[in-house]
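Researcher: Good morning. I'm working through a list of sequences from a screen, and I'd like to move beyond sequence-only analysis. For each chain I'm collecting a predicted structure so we can compare shapes side by side. This is the next one on the list. No need for commentary yet; just the structure.
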Amino acid sequence: MARLLLFNKPFGVLSQFTDRRSPTVRSTLSDFITVKGVYPAGRLDRDSEGLLLLCDDGRLQARIADPRFKLPKSYLVQVEGEPREQELERLREGVQLKDGLTLPADVARIDEPPLWPRDPPIRQRRSIPDSWLRITIREGRNRQVRRMTAAVGLPTLRLVRWSVGNWSVAEIAPGRYEEVPV
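Model: Good morning. Structure tokens for this chain:
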């Protein structure tokens, strides 16, 4: 039977078990995950937080990570500025990036969610407001959500992957994981 772990990846942690490329010590999954034989199904950038799925079954891993399956991934995104409806509509229609047009995204403006504190905290600027969005995509391009929000003039300050398909990080503390039935 396949094993599936839901891990709430903290900011600054690499989505891999080893870090051979850096001369300085960077935090990796091995600092948090004690289960042997599981591997990330997809990636989450070092400067992003939230749900990272790990499993020990190649077919399940492909079903989760492969863009052909268009599994929805939802993010809570703190952006710089006050989004206007035209900017949100551009995200909903798809954004032209250097590597092509993105698929349409589900986008909603939300109140600030009750998230855990980030370490280090987001720099607050009195003269520039920030806002929160929930963005759901069905692709997995490199740094896609950050590039999409930047392309419409709303730079991302904080990015938390909240869910992948029906799996969510809602009840999992940062740096913790739980095993779920597949």
